[in-house]
Amino acid sequence: MSQQQTSNGLLLGAIVGGAIGAISALLLAPKSGAKFREDLANTCQAISQKTKDIASNVGQSTKDFASTIKEEATEMVDHAKQSNQKVMDSLSTTKEDVKDELNTTGS
Predict the structure, then answer these.
(1) CA distances from 100 to 4, 86, 91, 92, 103 (A)
(2) Is the model's pTM score more than 0.85?
(3) b/e per residue, 39-65, with b = 16+ CB within 10 A?
(4) What does each of the 107 residues of the chain score in pLDDT, given as a tens digit?
């Protein structure tokens, strides 16, 4: 490499490094106490509001889920009652049929 290319590379590196250092210093510089407290309070309020929103959504979802479960459970109970009644009716009919058959063959 020539001396001029090395000098140009060194100069470019120094300029880029200086710019990165300056930007980093501005971004990472500590804020004043009042500004920091204000930013911290705003962040806490935003987090608090998001937490409330999430809790509200979870609460509503839980209510909806419980309502759906209740409806389905009620339907299942009704279905079970109907099935039980059908079985009882069938047993009663069979019992009567057996009685009639015994009375006819036994006489």
Answers:
(1) 121, 21, 14, 12, 5
(2) no
(3) eeeeeeeeeeeeeeeeeeeeeeeeeee
(4) 566 566 667 777 888 888 887 777 766 777 777 887 887 788 888 888 888 888 888 888 888 999 999 999 999 999 999 999 999 999 999 988 888 888 887 66
Whether the CB-CB separation of 31 and 39 falls below 8 Å is answered with: yes
Q: Using CA atoms, how far apart are residues 45 and 48, in angstroms rounded to an integer?
A: 5
Contact assessment for residue 85 and residue 93, using Cβ atoms and an 8 Å cutoff: no
Q: Nearest Cα to 94, choosing from 84, 106, 86?
A: 86
Q: What single-letter DSSP state applies at residue 1?
A: -
Query: Which one-letter DSSP state was computed for residue 30?
Result: P
Specify the amino acid at residue 39.
D
